[in-house]
Amino acid sequence: MIAAADIDTVVHMSLVSAPSRSGGRAAMKEHNVIGTMQLLGACQRSATVRRVVVRSTTAVYGSSPRDPAVFTEDLEPHDGPIHGYAKDAAEVEGYVRGFARRRPDVVVSLLRFANFMGPGVDSPLTRYFTQPVLPTVFGFDPRLQFVHEDDAVEVLRRMATEDHPGTFNVAGAGVLLLSQCARRAGRPKLPLFSPAFKALGGAVRRVGLVEYSPEQVRLMCHGRAVDIARLEAELGWKPKFTTGAAFDDFLRSRGLRPLGGVRA
Fold it and tell me: What is the pTM of this model?
């Protein structure tokens, strides 16, 4: 298809963040990792491809009590991902860097998006915030960071139409504590000790109610924040929505209101 249509720009967005109930983890890895390898192989053989944009995730940094306050693109995680979507994304990034070395004539942009948030987003995290009660890990109040869907589309548009090689974090400015998110959503919290939280996550994952993946459990303990200075400097542009504004837009779309009408 790439050869027949003389494609010059490829934007790879097809990374699955949770296994389907039918295919499971094996099918998810096949789609994410093997699918990316096949796509990059086709791009490498193409004489017309000049620009490749790949969606990745800030989950490649992991979530650990030893993490820095803010991740820049050049920092290595203390505890890298060892399973699931984050591990797939880390493997995908390795193949993308290999492709960039083999085809230095192609502009390769690797985008590490924070969790998407907004009216049109349906993800494990948005489904978590629409539960009547929000289970949390006792003793932890993690920092969370979001990118609004409109800002994500704008970044993709710019990367697909302009030359911006390199790796870039993409997120809204600022962070929200999980406790602030719960107050904004008007949802009571249910603090659980870590083993109970993990057991609950396994139970609801098996019945397909809400996806509590192992990496999401770690996120709910330790959180994660990234620096977006490189993106802003490269594009000469800043995301329209902060993390807080993106979350509020999502809440409005779901008709959620804070307890007592007071925002945190």
Answer: 0.91
pLDDT range class, residue 77, cuts 50, 70, 90: confident
Detail the DSSP E strand segments found in 60-172.
Answer: 107-113, 115-117, 134-137, 143-144, 146-148, 166-170
* Closest listed residue to residue 86, CA positions, set 218, 226, 198: 218
Distances (CA, A) of 18 to 189, 208, 212, 232: 24, 11, 10, 30
Q: How far is CA 142 from CA 46, 81, 188, 222, in A?
A: 44, 18, 16, 5
d(CA 206, CA 220): 19
Contact predicate 51/9, CB 8 Å = yes
CB 223 within 8 A of CB 62: no
Per the structure block, which two tokens stand in for 198? 């993990």
Supply 12's token pair. Answer: 């790879």
Distance between CA atoms of residues 192 and 231, nearest Å: 37
Q: What is the DSSP string of 199-212?
A: HHHHHHHHHTSS--
Residue with tokens 């949390």: 136
**Collapsed DSSP state (helix, strand, coil) of residue 162:** coil
3-state secondary structure of 99: helix
pLDDT in tens, 101-111: 999 999 999 99
